[in-house]
Design goal:
The complex is a heterodimer. By secondary structure, chain A is mainly β. Chain A has one domain. Chain A has helices at about 1-10, 95-100, 260-270, and strands at about 35-40, 50-60, 70-75, 110-120, 125-140, 145-150, 160-165, 175-180, 195-200, 210-215, 215-220, 225, 235-245, 250-255. Chain B is built from two helices and eight strands. Chain B has a domain at about 55-165: AOC barrel-like (Beta Barrel). The longest helix of chain B is centred in the first third of the chain and has 5 residues, at about 35. Helices cover about 5% and strands about 55% of the residues of chain B. Classes of the chains: A mainly beta, B mainly beta.
């Protein structure tokens, strides 16, 4: 991580950009707000799905948000993570740092996504996007651990590793995804890099796993996170708490509405 | 399962159980006898006390979201069949029914999953809450551990503990 930070600062000395994380120290007094989006793809009750999460952070016009240090997303009860067939292998932080997501076992990858970060470079706001891979990591203190590996190849080649865990949560939630986000310094005297958008998916969408059968290697798509056969009243609730370097902790909620069962039954008749 | 001890006006029965599976083992006088004796419900029925170790091999029946329904055979002190309804959340929680000779045993349990891979291990505790037939007044506590096959959703559950009935 230290080498990543050094490379980043050097590169930003001439160019701009960065990928994950957060905040311009020059935005003192700025307050940010955050929104949360969630989705199931495909969305069929009783069927496996990929869970999508979208986090958007907005700062006052012309400013960039404070550095995001932690995000905790609470997800609905009765989502079948354990039945998903995802994360059958683990990838270590050392492997990710040394070789990136491509160095991890394919069966350790549980999802992906992208992030958009902003950096103030002189009077300009510069953006950089990064792709994200989510890998299953060795358990931590009895909890399922994940690693978010973000890689922004251009204009600055940046890699960032963020630990995450699946933790218990009280009703109406079934658990919470806790993500710790490192602070990424920018150029000297300027604010840290600010994440303004984070979109991740957890599920089989775009993933290929492999298994050994009688000496042959077979590729397959993991099953996915199993949705319950019934939709909770009011839909599937999600909630997020954001922690920023400036000490603010905005929260956001969203609901994935129950599917249109009339349409589902209609399609089922044909 | 060899009940071997009747404790007059006491229940010292012990059972052990399989999370959802059967349990109990060798009947030995429970060291918890005095504790059970303090329980009014327990005093109402003379009991057998068993300590046991059992293993259940369960196969997938159905699932919905994080809820899993498995059933299969239990072997050991209380041989029979077992049905388990589990909520596979960040911790595994669920209920079980063991159908043994002469009646059924019901209970609940919770366990913490460990590690990753196709076979995910777990460990926790179980509580026997009742039953039917000769086990109508069953109660007890035990430990459970086992593995969950993330490929075919099969469970292997091993239990140790004591059972009173």
């Amino acid at each position: 991580m230290a080498s990543v930070g050094r490379a980043l600062r050097v590169a930003l000395g001439t160019l701009a950009t960065v990928f994950l994380c957060l905040y311009p120290a020059t935005t003192a007094g700025a307050t940010q707000s955050a929104t949360l989006g969630a989705s199931f793809t495909p969305y069929r009750l009783g069927a496996p799905t990929t869970v999508g999460l979208s986090l958007q952070i907005q700062a006052p016009a012309g400013q960039i948000p404070s550095a995001l240090t932690e995000v905790e997303v609470r997800y609905p009860q009765n989502l079948g993570w354990a039945l998903s067939g995802l994360g059958l292998a683990v990838c270590s932080p050392a492997t990710l740092e040394a070789a990136g997501a491509s160095g991890c076992p394919a069966n350790s990858i549980m999802g992906g996504g992208n992030a958009l970060a902003e950096l103030r470079f002189g009077p300009q706001l510069v953006s950089e996007s990064a792709s994200i891979s989510i890998a299953r990591a060795p358990d931590e203190e009895g909890h399922i651990a994940l690693l978010l590996y973000a890689s922004g190849p251009s204009p600055v080649n940046t890699q960032i590793l963020s630990p995450a865990q699946l933790l218990p949560a009280g009703p109406p939630f079934g658990g919470r995804l806790n993500m710790q986000l490192p602070i990424v310094p920018s150029v000297p005297g300027a604010a840290d890099v600010a994440i303004v958008s984070l979109r991740v998916t957890l599920g089989p969408l775009g993933l290929t796993y492999y298994e050994q059968t009688e000496g042959n290697t077979l590729a397959y798509t993991p099953k996915g996170i199993l949705l319950p056969t019934t939709c909770p009243r009011g839909g599937f609730p999600f909630a997020a708490t954001f922690s920023f370097l400036d000490g603010s902790h905005p929260a956001a909620r969203t609901i994935v509405p129950c599917p249109d069962l009339r349409g589902r039954r209609h399609r089922g008749r044909h | 399962m060899t009940p071997h001890h009747h404790v007059r006006r006491r229940v010292t029965a012990a059972l052990c159980g399989t999370f959802v599976a059967g349990c109990i083992a060798t009947a030995t006088q429970s060291p918890h006898a005095s504790a059970y004796a303090a329980e009014p419900g327990a005093r109402a029925h003379a009991a057998h006390v068993l300590s046991a170790t059992d293993t259940a091999h369960l196969h997938y029946v159905s699932s919905s979201g994080s809820l899993l329904f498995d059933e299969g055979k239990a072997t050991g002190t209380l041989p029979g069949s077992m049905r388990v309804h589990l909520d596979l959340g960040t911790t595994f929680t669920g209920t079980f029914t063991i159908y043994a000779s002469g009646g059924s045993i019901e209970g609940r349990g919770s366990a913490t999953p460990h590690g990753s891979g196709t076979y995910e291990s777990f460990s926790g505790t179980l509580t026997v809450t009742g039953g039917s037939g000769r086990y109508a007044h069953a109660h007890g506590h035990g430990g459970l551990y086992g593995t969950f096959d993330r490929d075919n959703y099969a469970l292997v559950i091993k239990t140790t503990g004591s059972l009173s009935y």
